[in-house]
Amino acid sequence: MRSTTRLALGSVVVAAVVLGLKFLAYLLTGSVALYSDALESIINVAAAVAALIALRVAARPADANHPYGHTKAEYFSAVAEGVLIVLAAVAILLEAGPALLSPRPVDAPYPGLLVNLGASLLNGVWASVLLRGGHRHRSPALLADGRHVLSDVVTSVGVLVGVILAGLTGWAVLDPLLAVLVALNVLWSGWSLMRESVGGLMDAGADPATTARLRQLMSEHAEGALEIHDVRTRHAGRVTFVEFHLVVPGQMTVEEAHHICDRLEDAIRSELEGASVTIHVEPQEKAKHHGVLVL
């Protein structure tokens, strides 16, 4: 089993445990804010399952119908997770609205708060594991899941503080008011996830820092060529596709041009693990006199 799939499977288990703990905290307190926190944990379970399925699909090798592989499946998982998060925010607002009009005291909050705190600590540890794994494996699905879990931790901390204040001050309205704030934070988290993931589905190019580094590598490792132009990049899950035109002297042999291409591919893949590099070799009369200057 791939390490990314193991992490996704671990997310399902952790999300299920956290969901149980948070609903127990809600049952112990009757807090609308804790209920909203538990509702978001249902989304965590669904999102973890979606990420697991997407990673299993993304791991499939290229085939006749998908010659570029299946890595974009991870973006579908991230988009679905964003949609689920938005739906969770709507559900929280529907629950918090009536409670704002008729706030009720929070019952015996402290045992429930301790349970919720334990769930939040577990989530915090797992969020750091997911984010490290997502960056290491360049996995959009794991990064999306990690950011979602981390936002859940921030939300839970806010809920804990608010419910404690409601219990200490007797201001019952703080509980549903905090639930509304939780919903707005969840809504922003879901929108951010969808926006980033749609960029991947739309073949957004590499970020400016990565693009600048690629152009530097091309300049340093294309000795013998004359020019590099029409550089294009796009992401598909953990794979970055890099395409460009390499202009060489007209009298250069195919073998010599091939050696330059090999150097360039090795340099790019050392910077971007698993990159897919496509180079179109052209004679010098095709030069555009702009692009990457070969050192």
TrEMBL record:
Subcellular location: Membrane
Pfam families in the record: Cation_efflux, ZT_dimer
Predominant place of localization: membrane
Residue ranges of domain Cation efflux protein transmembrane in the record: 11-202
Record-linked InterPro entries: Cation_efflux (IPR002524), Cation_efflux_CTD (IPR027470), Cation_efflux_CTD_sf (IPR036837), Cation_efflux_TM (IPR058533), Cation_efflux_TMD_sf (IPR027469), CDF_Transporter (IPR050291)
Keyword Transmembrane: yes
Transmembrane segments: 7-29, 41-59, 79-101, 113-132, 153-171
Domain Cation efflux protein cytoplasmic positions: 207-283
Keywords: Membrane, Transmembrane, Transmembrane helix, Transport
Keyword presence, NAD: no
Family note: Belongs to the cation diffusion facilitator (CDF) transporter (TC 2.A.4) family.
Identification of the protein by name: Cadmium transporter
Species lineage: Bacteria, Thermotogati, Deinococcota, Deinococci, Deinococcales
